[in-house]
């Protein structure tokens, strides 16, 4: 399907055009060539093709969605997708004036992208690409077909684009967090003595799916072990459980961690979780629009350093949204490999943070809280703010 570009064809651009145009100008980009699932979803207003939601490979190639957006020229925008996406367009038309629902692999998608760039007069433009999400065969084709173009890494620009969430995005993130929290608490209450890690993870998958979330992963520990992989290890009386799950709602991530206990927590366990909570609260106290991201990090780290559990406890915070680690990037290589480029920048309203304190106690096990916060002008709003103490198993 091909709808030719034309003036005044755009009626509903699903993102802040002025902001995106400004970010493109700062990055020296004339036209975007977005090829990642998350950025094409964002630029299409939340759409993701269900057939390739859990995979990319098909035949000898892979699915490669492409959104082309020219700075200041939404009438020249295009979406290049799989042949089956013509039916999606019939039911819920894409906003882009041009649609090519015609591809089965990377090379036909790249060819159509080249043809569209030539049609709109951008064959020699500064083209923003996603190197990490542009297959080598597609990149080679584009490079050869557009020898006068300058291909620019648009990764940072696109990350900045997604850093400030809309109200609709915040609602999806809130819903994702609530569904994940409810699912984790239900799983802890369901599990009892003799329930294995593998059984708990499968139960959590069901809980999340039944609530309308898409299960992504579950990292779970029992007893004194720090191993979070699925196994036949069974829950025993008096043992702790940590359950850390990521799932999504309409593509937006919920990522939280809660603690369980089979029986009643003793005084030492109450004290250890309180130490974790103290560090979490220290971080929360510095979250508000205008505060430097690095100041929040340093304050929490200072509180942790003064704690008796510091030798085996770690603090970490990161941005989240359509993916689990996105802007604002607050810490360098801790543990995910990227630079903390936002540490010296102020937090902004509607940024979303994951804040986590993890204790690897030498005898009592893996004790952790992970929370999701949306930055406001005066502080923050927490999503999924329940079950942050010791939750009883076998209830």
Automatic annotation (TrEMBL):
Where do the Peptidase M24 domain residues begin and end?
171-377
Signal sequence residues: none
CDD domains in UniProt? APP_MetAP (cd01066)
Q: Which InterPro entries does this UniProt record tie to the protein?
A: Creatin/AminoP/Spt16_N, Creatinase/aminopeptidase-like, Creatinase_N, Pept_M24, Peptidase_M24B
What the entry lists under Gene3D superfamilies is as follows: Creatinase/methionine aminopeptidase superfamily (3.90.230.10), Creatinase/prolidase N-terminal domain (3.40.350.10)
Task: Provide the Creatinase N-terminal domain boundaries.
Answer: 19-164
Source species, domain of life: Bacteria
Instruction: Identify this protein by name.
Output: M24 family metallopeptidase
């Amino acid at each position: 399907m091909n709808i030719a570009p034309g003036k005044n064809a755009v009626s509903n651009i699903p993102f802040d055009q002025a902001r995106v145009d400004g970010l493109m100008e700062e990055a020296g980009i004339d036209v975007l060539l977005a090829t990642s699932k998350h950025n094409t979803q964002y630029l299409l207003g939340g759409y993701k093709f269900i057939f390739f939601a859990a995979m990319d490979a098909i035949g000898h190639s892979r699915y490669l969605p492409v959104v082309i957006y020219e700075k200041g020229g939404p009438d020249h925008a295009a979406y290049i997708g799989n042949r089956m996406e013509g039916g999606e367009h019939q039911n819920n038309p894409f906003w882009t004036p041009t649609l090519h629902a015609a591809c089965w692999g990377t090379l036909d998608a790249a060819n159509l992208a080249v043809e569209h760039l030539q049609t709109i007069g951008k064959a020699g433009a500064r083209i923003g690409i996603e190197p990490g999400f542009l297959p080598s065969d597609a990149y080679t084709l584009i490079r050869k077909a557009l020898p006068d173009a300058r291909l620019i890494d648009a990764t940072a620009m696109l990350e900045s684009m997604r850093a400030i969430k809309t109200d609709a995005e915040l609602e999806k993130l809130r819903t994702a967090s609530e569904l994940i929290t409810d699912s984790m608490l239900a799983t802890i209450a369901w599990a009892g003595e003799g329930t294995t890690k593998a059984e708990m993870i499968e139960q959590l998958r069901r809980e999340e799916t039944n609530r309308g979330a898409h299960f992504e992963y579950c990292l779970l520990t029992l007893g004194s072990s720090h191993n979070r992989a699925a196994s036949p290890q069974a829950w025993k009386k008096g043992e702790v459980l940590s359950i850390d799950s990521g799932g999504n709602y309409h593509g937006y991530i919920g990522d939280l961690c809660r603690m369980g206990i089979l029986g009643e927590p003793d005084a030492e366990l109450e004290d250890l979780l309180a130490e974790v909570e103290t560090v979490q609260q220290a971080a929360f106290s510095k979250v508000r629009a205008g505060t430097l991201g690095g100041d929040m990090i340093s304050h929490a780290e200072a509180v942790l350093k003064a704690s008796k559990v510091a030798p085996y406890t770690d603090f970490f915070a990161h941005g989240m949204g359509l993916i689990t680690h996105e802007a604002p990037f607050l810490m360098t290589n801790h543990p995910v490999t990227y630079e903390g480029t936002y540490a010296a920048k102020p937090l902004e309203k509607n940024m979303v943070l994951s804040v986590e304190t993890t204790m690897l106690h030498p005898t009592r096990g893996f004790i952790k809280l992970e929370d999701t916060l949306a930055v406001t002008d005066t502080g923050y709003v927490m999503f999924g703010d329940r079950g942050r103490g010791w939750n009883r198993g076998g209830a």
